[in-house]
């Protein structure tokens, strides 16, 4: 059966088996692969037909964002389905491969998530979430294009809306506590009341086509917004954890650098003088994504400043240690040659040793005296 413009009827995504961290049962994995492949084929046919409808509509630009998002989501699911089939390998799978399949199904991946053209941002979605978001976007697009199914499908539409409302209840519970969760819950309750009223009217023989359409659009929009909002909250949480970890790591580096700088200044007279950046001076971690991103940029600048100071102090101390090693090696050589007790060598060694042991040590003088000792040793 087709609708106006030869657009095939919508087909909901198959339910995903198992859960994250648990190996899929072989029979369930095989059935899901078959159902997912069928869904992808039918959804692609539907998307191609919808794309033609969009191009033929009076305002194609109005629908471009939705059809682009739907295509991108379809491709994301298709890519993951190809990975699942590669791991499945015609059924030659053990527990490790079936756990990998569960991760591919339920693990979240980066999927283009913005509706507007040129406004894409990565959203971490699992395969079921991407499928549901595709269903929601396609449902909204069909309604905007006026591609309503016939009255014979009213029961199927009502059943799909009821299932969608259950998903919306689950997603509403994941909203932040307080007003966001309360608003989402109240919105879902209002949709459920309108669906109940429409169902009662249909049971009395009334035409509910004009009621179900807007209800489907509103439910699809809410589901899309909840999925996108949840994904963005996960991204924001990951950003906060990353920036907090970077800040703690820089604070530890700064403390280590202070110790290194103190040692260098005490050891070498001509030590560099670099200020040790104070991570605490950046203030507490902000609470908005934009501010946290800017804060992370400032942390990167602090990290570069720490790197410059670490290199300068470290290089100075390494040069001092190299002189110590050279003098020790020259003494071993002098002893091997039986010349360590020669007066000139003893005086040169004593001066070099004193220059190195002085605190702080004068690097240029110590270098010259170590070279002098080497010159005496080379002389015959």
What can you tell me about this protein's structure?
The chain has 380 residues and is mostly helical. It folds into three domains: 1-147; 240-314; 316-378. 72% of the residues lie in helices and 2% in strands. It is built from ten helices and two strands, in the order αααββααααααα. The chain has a two-stranded antiparallel ribbon with strand order 1-2. α1 packs antiparallel against α2 (60-88) and α2 packs antiparallel against α4. The protein is elongated, with a radius of gyration of 35 Å. 26% of the residues are buried.
- What ranges have pLDDT less than 50 throughout 5 or more consecutive residues? 111-122
What structural category do the secondary elements indicate? mainly alpha
Task: Identify the strand order in the major beta sheet.
Answer: 1-2
Main beta-sheet strand count, sense and barrel state:
2 strands, antiparallel
Global mean pLDDT: 86
Total domain units = 3
Rg value:
35 Å
- Specify the overall morphology: elongated
Write down how many β-strands occur, each being a DSSP E stretch of 2 or more residues.
Answer: 2
What is the H-and-E element order? HHHEEHHHHHHH
Distance between the termini: 106 Å
Count of helix runs = 10
Q: Helical amount among residues, as a percent range?
A: over 70%
β-sheet strand percentage:
under 5%
Condensed summary:
With 380 residues, the protein is mostly helical.
């Amino acid at each position: 059966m087709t609708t106006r413009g030869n657009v095939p009827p919508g087909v909901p995504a198959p339910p995903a088996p198992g859960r994250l961290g648990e190996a899929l049962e072989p029979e369930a994995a095989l059935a899901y692969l078959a159902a997912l492949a069928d869904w992808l084929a039918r959804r692609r046919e539907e998307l191609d037909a919808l794309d033609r409808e969009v191009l033929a509509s009076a305002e194609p630009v109005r629908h471009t964002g939705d059809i682009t998002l739907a295509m991108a989501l379809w491709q994301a699911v298709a890519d993951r389905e190809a990975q699942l089939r590669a791991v499945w390998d015609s059924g030659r799978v053990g527990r490790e491969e079936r756990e990998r399949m569960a991760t591919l199904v339920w693990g979240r991946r980066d999927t283009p998530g913005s509706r507007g053209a040129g406004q894409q941002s990565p959203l971490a979605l699992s395969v079921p979430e991407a499928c549901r978001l595709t269903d929601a976007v396609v449902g909204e697009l069909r309604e905007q294009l006026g591609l309503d199914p016939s009255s014979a499908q009213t029961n199927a539409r009502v059943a799909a809306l009821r299932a969608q409302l259950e998903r919306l209840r689950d997603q509403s519970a994941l909203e932040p506590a307080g007003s966001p969760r309360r608003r989402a819950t109240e919105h879902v309750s209002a949709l459920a009341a309108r669906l109940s009223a429409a169902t009662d009217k249909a049971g009395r023989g009334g035409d509910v086509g004009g009621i179900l359409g807007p209800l489907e659009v509103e439910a699809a929009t809410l589901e899309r917004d909840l999925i996108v909002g949840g994904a963005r909250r996960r991204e924001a949480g990951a950003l906060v954890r990353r920036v907090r970890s970077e800040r703690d790591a820089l604070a530890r580096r700064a403390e280590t650098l202070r110790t290194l700088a103190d040692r260098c200044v005490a050891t070498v007279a001509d030590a560099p003088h670099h200020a040790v950046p104070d991570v605490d001076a950046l203030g507490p971690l902000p609470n908005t994504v934009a501010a946290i991103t800017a804060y992370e940029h400032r942390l990167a600048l602090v990290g570069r400043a720490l790197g410059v100071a670490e290199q300068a102090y470290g290089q100075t101390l390494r040069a001092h240690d190299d002189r110590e090693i050279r003098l020790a090696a020259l003494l071993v050589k002098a002893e091997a040659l039986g010349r360590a007790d020669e007066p000139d060598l003893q005086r040169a060694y004593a001066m070099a040793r004193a220059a190195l042991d002085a605190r702080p040590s004068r690097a240029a003088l110590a270098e010259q005296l170590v070279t002098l000792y080497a010159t005496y040793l080379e002389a015959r």
